[in-house]
From TrEMBL:
Membrane topology qualifier: Single-pass membrane protein
Protein name: Ig-like domain-containing protein
Matching SUPFAM superfamilies: Immunoglobulin (SSF48726)
Source domain of life: Eukaryota
Organism from which the protein derives: Nesidiocoris tenuis
Domain Ig-like: 11-101, 219-312
Alphabetized PROSITE patterns for the sequence: IG_LIKE
Assigned keywords, A-Z: Cell adhesion, Disulfide bond, Immunoglobulin domain, Membrane, Repeat, Signal, Transmembrane, Transmembrane helix
Length: 316
């Protein structure tokens, strides 16, 4: 066991390397790593997962005397994935201890010309829904391209906000455009996004997209459960299947009241591949008090439809 001498102290970081370092090929980049301790720590760099200290790569990468990792400006043909697109860690050591930084991911960027695409997210939209429009940037430029605004008919600008109020909302954290309470007038407008390359300063407009509203149709029951007459004890299953646009929601009731909540009633619902809603009520052990008129009701924006049938339990 080694004991520390008087006044010795292990390394501690005064300046940690950033978790991500963007290297713009025209400017290069510098990652600082400053450590203190007694005696003064030695700072070295490693590729993440490696045990051999970094060696300088002429004109591409070198460790400065103060321990900083420097990536000078480079030509596109000098790009090296093992240098410009990898992960590093800073290591500080002295006679009193050792300290290893968290990973620093380096991402070199050389592209100035880029394209962005405006899209309408999700499935069919109906009157009254909220539409979400997305501005898709090239994956390798994520974090470098910022969505600065959405344009409506090339004239009205929507900017990022944290308030979340009004007809048009652009959340500041993701650059999407939310259009609330859709109406037919929204389908006659054109929407596009504007972005900014934060390294080159170049602004780019996307394509224009339109919103299309689907036609709503009232639900129809394509399968209805039958009436049942049985003795107490056995299980029973009631099922309804409904179609419609938008996809309907099925609710159940007994004698006009919501089904009781207990371990004997199991209600399930899912949407089939062809878009029909399949809903069922399973009673694991029928009791006398479960008898009555059961109703399944399918509802959507266009209306509702229901079906009722009795469940008779002997002893009622």
């Amino acid at each position: 066991m080694r004991f520390l001498r008087c006044c010795e102290s292990g390394p501690r970081f005064l300046v940690d390397p950033p978790r991500e370092l963007i290297v713009w090929y025209k400017d290069g980049a510098l990652a600082n790593c400053v450590a203190s301790g007694s005696p003064e720590p030695k700072v070295t760099w490693f590729l993440s997962g490696e045990t051999t200290p970094l060696q300088p790569v002429p004109n591409v990468r070198r460790v400065l005397d103060n321990g900083s990792l420097y990536f000078p400006p480079f030509k596109p043909e000098e790009f090296r994935p093992d240098v410009h697109l990898t992960t590093y860690r800073c290591f500080a050591s002295n006679s009193a201890g050792k300290l290893l930084s968290l990973d620093m991911t380096v991402k070199a960027v050389m592209v100035e010309n880029y394209q962005v695409e405006a899209t309408v997210a999700g499935g069919p939209l109906f009157v009254g829904d909220t539409a979400v429009l997305r501005c898709k940037v090239p994956q390798h430029l994520e974090g470098i391209i910022t969505v600065t605004a959405w344009l409506i008919d090339e004239s009205y600008n929507v900017y990022p906000t944290t308030e979340g109020e009004g007809k048009y909302v652009m959340p500041s954290w993701n650059g999407d455009l939310h259009i609330l309470n859709l109406s037919l007038s929204d389908t006659r407008k054109k929407y596009s996004c504007r972005t900014l390359h934060r390294l080159s300063g170049k602004s780019q407009h996307s394509n224009s997209v339109n919103i299309q509203l689907a036609e709503a149709s009232k639900p129809q029951l394509v399968y209805e459960f039958l009436e049942h007459t049985l003795q107490p004890g056995p299980p029973v299953s009631l099922k309804c299947i409904a179609s419609g646009s938008p996809t309907p929601q099925i609710t159940w009731s007994l004698d006009g009241y919501p089904l009781p909540i207990n371990e004997r009633f199991i209600i399930g619902q899912y949407v089939s591949l062809n878009g029909e809603v399949i809903s069922h009520v399973n009673l694991t052990k029928v009791a006398v008090e479960d008898g009555g008129v059961y109703t399944c009701k399918a509802s959507n924006k266009a209306g509702s439809v229901e079906h009722s049938a009795p469940l008779r339990v002997y002893g009622m």
